[in-house]
Amino acid sequence: MEQRELKSKIEAVLFTTAKALKVKELAEILGVDADLIEEALLELIMDYASRDGALEIDDEDGYILQVKLEHMDIVEKLCPVELKPAVLKTLTVIALKEPIRQSYLKDLRGSNAYEHVQELVQKGLISKNKDKNGRSFNIKTTQKFSEYFKLKGDAKALAKFLEIEKGVSDD
Amino acid sequence: MEQRELKSKIEAVLFTTAKALKVKELAEILGVDADLIEEALLELIMDYASRDGALEIDDEDGYILQVKLEHMDIVEKLCPVELKPAVLKTLTVIALKEPIRQSYLKDLRGSNAYEHVQELVQKGLISKNKDKNGRSFNIKTTQKFSEYFKLKGDAKALAKFLEIEKGVSDD
Amino acid sequence: MTEAFDYSLTNTNTAEVNGASVNSATQELDGIEILVSMAKTGKVNPWNIDIVDITDKYLTQLFQMKSQNLRLTGRTLLFAAILLKLKSNILENIEMVEFEPNEEQFDEFDISDDFNTEENYTYNQNNVISIDEVLQRRTSIRLNRNRVVTLKDLIRQLEFYEMIDKKQSLKNAHERAKRRVRSYANLSSEDIINLAHDEYIEDGVQRLKENLEQIFKRENRVELTELTLLGMDKISAYIALLFLSAESDYELVQDEFYAELYVTRGLQ
Fold it and tell me: From CA A139, how far away is CA A101, in angstroms rounded?
């Protein structure tokens, strides 16, 4: 395959999947050697960088085609996630510690956590499943969540911190 | 706003919404005069056309940023639609030739058509009624179908094409 | 995790930080304890540290604490500074391994003597990433990606299949042509000219016709290879047979692909 054609195929994959893909994944999808993918990908990234448009290919934990940060306002406007700060915080705790038991979440976030969970389930951002022993619920974030959000910075350290703190008050 | 900036904003909107937008809608979203939008949009379209990448801005019934037809296989592979391609094809045939007798549909689409019909009835996209003489079934699309789908473009030509081909195989 | 920056709320020293009524224990609060107590009383959000705000509050606190304890003030500002540094590091996404307070910073507060007895502070940015900053909106989100496809999509899909189909039939034709070329490749140019020559073909047809009449008096069918015994090469015999089958009732039969070709008499 020509380099130009491969570049174009990679672009199509990134546009269609709308999620971060590793070189290996791209190679699998396109049935092309990872080395070739990497080469073409780098060229594609440079193409985008030199284009001065609204889109860019970010390479944080895989390659993803996204709108540049400067147009975040447009993204927010078109795909608003209307969550009250408290609910957002509950969502953050879930994302950091998933899968998390509902009872533990309540320990961390207080009794309002139940309401928050309900709202988040309704919005399709988390899913809630009966525990193996059937006594509590396990809560996880969904595919939709990962389309809307990513965890930033040293999330692991923060998760550890939560462990110690045992509680995330609303303000 | 600079032309370049506006172009970039339009690109961000088209990328994020992922559906066909009219100039008026773009103007509303961005709070910019429709004339200016149109001007910037045309430039953006030309940018894409000259770029030789995987994406294009199509301008049929609104403007949409999409993967070029030549990479449709990638889109199909990665973006699972709610109906399998074969079922979609059956639905298309029904939409184009309704009301259609189930026996004739079977001629066109093969014996799998029965299964497809079942699935489509279940999804409420088509209805199936006994023929007058009670021997076969007549199939039509439903109200729900027309809520989801819109016949447009060169559908008539396509219907003719089906007539000539007498059979739309799955691959 | 470093103990030095422990926000732990287990600290029993619950000072009223806004109030004017500061008990004697409060006098001994240092930077960390002030932070903790401010968090406890809800003056600051431990999950969302606003450095500017916190610094302001420290200064207010400082003002309210009538005893102008310079050591306390220095430490309070130190922690504000550290927070600021940490936060900017987080924002910059720079790994900060160690942060050791520089003594010079305290000179103006005249506490350097005091400070040396303190433990060394080693902070890691991990301690103070704010929970409100953990979740970041993605800009890769695409609405309508999993929408029910529109008919236009269907038409596009069909067009795509059509295109593939065209490409395939084109490819097949190309393959066939290539195969033909290959089978002729063994022939000399003279052979090819002869092959194409009408008279040559006519001659072959005539010879074959006479011979076949003789053969079919005895046999029901004859192998094509056998006909080469008549002094014709296989291709010439084959071409002659094609002509013959068109104008008479001789037929070419093959039981399996690539197997022997037979000449038979068609049903009368």
Answer: 6
Residue C60 has which token pair?
């207010």
Asked if the Cβ–Cβ distance from A161 to C138 is below 8 Å, we say no
Contacts of A68 in chain B (CB under 8 A): 12
For residue B133, the tally of other CB atoms under 10 A from its CB is 6
Q: Residue B152: which of C144, C145, C151 has the nearest Cβ?
A: C151
The answer to whether the complex's ipTM is over 0.90 is no
How far apart (Å, rounded) are the C-alpha atoms in residues C138 and A71? Answer: 11
Distance (Å, whole) CA B108 – CA B89: 11
Residue C225 makes CB contacts below 8 A (sequence gap 6+) with C234, C260
Q: Which two tokens stand for residue C87?
A: 């936060």
Peptide bond preceding A80 in cis form (omega within 30 of 0): no
> Among residues A148, A154, A98, A105, which one has the least CA distance to residue A123?
A148
- pLDDT tens string B1-29: 788 899 999 999 999 998 889 999 999 99
pLDDT tops 90 at residue A56: yes
Q: Using the Cα atoms of residue C73, residue C75, residue C76 and residue C81 in order, give the sign of their dihedral.
A: positive
Segment C89-136, tens digit of pLDDT: 434 433 333 333 333 333 333 333 333 333 333 333 334 456 667 777
